[in-house]
Specification:
globular, four-stranded antiparallel β-sheet, 10 strands, alpha+beta
């Protein structure tokens, strides 16, 4: 298959579905799960609380992605048109020199058990480590099926954490959760061993819950970007300058990383995974060992003058449990990607985040963000001004030509259009 589908934006929804189904090999009927009635209020009540109904957002596909030598179409849920357009554009540039190459660590999650009132925390830490085998066995007994599929408890770590006048003892269960996100599994284990941990340490348990700082569950993506495809050597240099500002300045880093998360969160949401967990882990990772907030990605020029982009961050996503299995749209989104493991999904999501970042930095380092962004946003402005289906196109074309994107101008253009009929 090829993910290069020129002119997709000009097709009808039915035509897009037919192209996507033919390209990916899935049944076009599966894409009906993306219809507004594909997930009704009764089904929603099984996932959330005090449900009144459902709230629909657009589902699109990012095109042009080549990941580890294979082309793939990626579902994205977002209300902002420029996000999918940018991801597709970044992927188009990356595919010139082979697309994205990805890797990942094992699917390791951790749960924390916090102890207070420990009179000898340093000695208690060693007592817990001495009881490692017992505690690991007790935790593993809570989920024997996890071991059957190659996962399970891998280690027990114990830390002392000081704050103000307190020294807390914190035990970490390190668990390979395989194709699950893993929150429920590690939380159950932490609760099961908490009392025994407290008994050994001589303290009292307060918290027993996972950490969303999933720094043992990393996904990575890299791409070499052709200098001419980017716009020439000056654009390459200016993209490196833009990256360096993000690396050194937290004010810029926040927006730099938000651009990455535009792509990542849209795929995480489409596949029924936990956007809040992924975002928390990513921004925590951006602080790093230096203790200051910095850019998640890196950009550097290689010996040939091309730009090399890399991204590494926690990616705790799964294919089993939660909305991924119960939401029909999420099931269809996963089927569309063709992934068969949580690791593959994590790497694909990371590649989309890097594609988004590439496109954003290229625009910022050349023409500026508003030209492209507002051209795409012009459709929303036209609709807000009252343009009907046959009027949106002419109004958008005029807004772009005038380089003026305000609501009042759109309303004036619409009135002028109607008066000329």
């Amino acid at each position: 298959m090829t993910s290069r589908i020129p002119g997709m934006r000009d097709l009808s929804i039915g035509e897009r579905r037919a192209v996507v189904a033919e390209t990916t090999g899935i049944d076009v009927a599966e894409l009906a799960a993306f219809d507004a009635d594909g997930f009704d209020g009764e089904a929603a009540s099984q996932l959330s609380e005090n449900v009144l109904g459902t709230f629909a957002l657009p589902v699109g596909v990012a095109a042009n992605l080549t990941v580890n030598g294979a082309d793939v179409l990626v579902p994205m849920v977002t209300e902002e048109a420029s996000v999918i357009a940018a991801a597709s554009n970044g992927a188009r540039i990356a595919r010139v020199l082979g697309g994205f190459h990805t890797s990942s660590t094992g699917p390791i999650m951790q749960a924390q058990i916090q102890l207070v009132d420990v009179v000898d925390p340093h000695a208690a830490r060693l007592r817990l480590l001495e009881a490692r085998a017992e505690l690991v066995e007790l935790a593993a007994a809570q989920d024997p099926k996890l071991a059957e599929v190659g996962g399970g408890v891998r280690d027990l770590l114990v830390r002392t954490v000081g704050f103000e006048d307190e020294t807390y003892l914190v035990a970490h269960l390190v668990v390979d959760v395989r194709d699950a996100m893993g929150a429920n599994a590690v939380n159950t284990m932490a609760e099961a061993v908490a009392d025994r941990v407290a008994e050994i340490a001589g303290g009292r348990v307060v918290l027993r819950i996972l950490t969303n700082k999933a720094d043992m569950r990393l996904a990575r993506a890299r791409a070499v970007l052709d200098a001419e495809a980017l716009g020439g050597p000056l654009v390459v240099d200016d993209m490196v300058h833009a990256y360096k500002l993000a690396a050194g300045d937290p004010y810029r880093a926040a927006t730099h990383n938000k651009g990455i998360m535009n792509g990542i969160s849209a795929v995480v949401l489409a596949t029924g995974n936990d956007t809040r967990a992924v975002e928390a882990g990513a921004h925590s990772h951006a602080v790093g060992s230096a203790g200051r907030y910095t850019a998640l990605s890196t950009f550097e020029k290689d010996a040939d003058g091309n730009l090399v982009a890399t991204l590494e961050l926690p990616m705790p996503v799964g294919l089993v449990g939660g909305a991924t299995k119960t939401h029909p749209g999420a099931r269809a989104a996963v089927a569309l990607t063709g992934v068969s493991s949580a690791a593959e999904l994590a790497e694909l999501i990371t590649a989309v985040g890097l594609a988004q970042n590439i496109a954003a930095l290229r625009v910022l380092a050349s023409e500026g963000v508003q030209r492209g962004h507002m051209s795409l946003h012009a459709k929303n402005i036209a609709i807000a001004a009252g343009a009907g289906p046959d009027e949106v196109g002419p109004v958008v074309a005029r807004l772009i030509a005038d380089k003026t994107f305000g609501y009042d101008h759109a309303a004036a253009v619409l009135a002028e259009l109607r008066s000329g009929r």
